[in-house]
Design goal:
Shape: globular
Order of helices and strands: EEEEEHHEH
Oligomer: single chain
Strand content: 25-35%
Length: about 160
């Protein structure tokens, strides 16, 4: 079953309103994640057709396990730029995981082995905490809750 119309929801994630949108098109899927009410950075995610993907659908959103993005994933910034190297890395992480969730939704959402490119728009409120390496607790919580919300949206499509 293909999604014929967009899926949207609003979640309060770590005390911040987060708007989520999944909009399929014939040649790609657009996903918007915003806490700022704007598009932010746009990143296109694609994968070669020769790379195998898990096609068993999106796991239970109450679980914290997420499907691992394939090593061959290709990220291409389209426009908009994060304000720091840390945010660029964080946005790349979001884009890769979002696309993997979309692709792993498999036959139900994308009509079988379709691997349309995924365009991810990301505009997140910047954490006020500074971390030398990796993600701080706020960023981890926001990431996991956002992915759980997207997985729930995809499960409703199946």
């Amino acid at each position: 079953m293909l999604i014929n119309s967009s899926q949207a929801c609003v979640q309060i994630i770590d005390g911040i309103q987060t708007d989520l949108l999944i909009q399929p098109f014939a040649d790609r899927v657009f996903v918007q994640i915003t806490q700022l009410g704007k598009v932010g950075s746009l990143i296109q995610v694609s994968i070669p057709t020769t790379v195998p993907l898990a096609s068993n659908g999106v796991s239970d959103p109450s679980e914290h396990a997420l499907p691992a993005p394939p090593a061959a994933i290709q990220l291409m910034p389209l426009f908009g730029s994060a304000s720091s190297e840390h945010l660029r890395s964080l946005y790349s992480l979001y884009a890769a995981q979002v696309a993997t969730l979309i692709w792993c939704a498999g036959g139900h959402m994308l009509g079988g082995s379709d691997r349309r490119s995924v365009i991810v728009g990301i505009a997140l409120r910047q954490s006020t905490r500074t971390v030398e390496e990796g993600l701080d607790e706020h960023e981890r919580k926001t990431f996991h809750e956002t992915m759980q919300a997207l997985a729930s949206m995809l499960n409703k499509c199946n």
